[in-house]
Specification:
Blueprint (H helix, E strand, L loop, with lengths): L26 H8 L2 H9 L12 H14 L3 H10 L1 H6 L13 H6 L6 H20 L1
Length: 137
């Protein structure tokens, strides 16, 4: 089962451990804000039945998958990085910094099985286009 997320967060609503505000010029903030999470979420949500335990939010799982590939880390290592970095936690859609994210390495590993090859190619192309646009600015 998949429950649609209630709108996307922004940097001003993210609660940091140090009481400040995230830097809007941080590369992960810019990248997160440019990604059409809602569009990807529609594809993801269509892959679940209406019954069963709720799935993790698309932004959390896809975000962790993107970060894993960007850094070329293992699933276990990216979870360690996520636990330590508020910018990466914002990237995966958390509303506030937490010490232990609710995500497993096996979920990141199996996440792509929810998508067809065509869906994955489309998502990858959109992400590559966004990265090019951000680099050219």
């Amino acid at each position: 089962m998949y429950k649609k997320q209630a709108g996307q967060i922004n940097i001003y609503s993210f609660i940091t451990p140090f009481g400040g505000v995230l830097d809007k010029n941080n590369r992960w903030v810019k990248y997160a804000d440019a990604i059409p999470w809602d569009e990807f979420e529609r594809i993801y949500a269509s892959k679940f039945s209406r019954l069963g335990a709720p799935a993790k939010p698309l932004r959390m799982v896809l975000g962790a998958y993107i970060l894993k590939n960007e850094y070329n880390f293992s699933e276990t290592r990216i979870i360690e990085e996520l636990n330590e970095n508020p910018y990466l936690q914002y990237f995966i859609g958390l509303n506030e910094y937490i010490n232990k994210i609710p995500l497993s390495s096996s979920l990141i590993r199996s996440f792509t099985k929810r998508f067809s090859e065509n869906d994955l190619n489309k998502i990858q192309q959109i992400l590559e286009d966004i990265k090019k646009k951000l680099k050219s600015k």
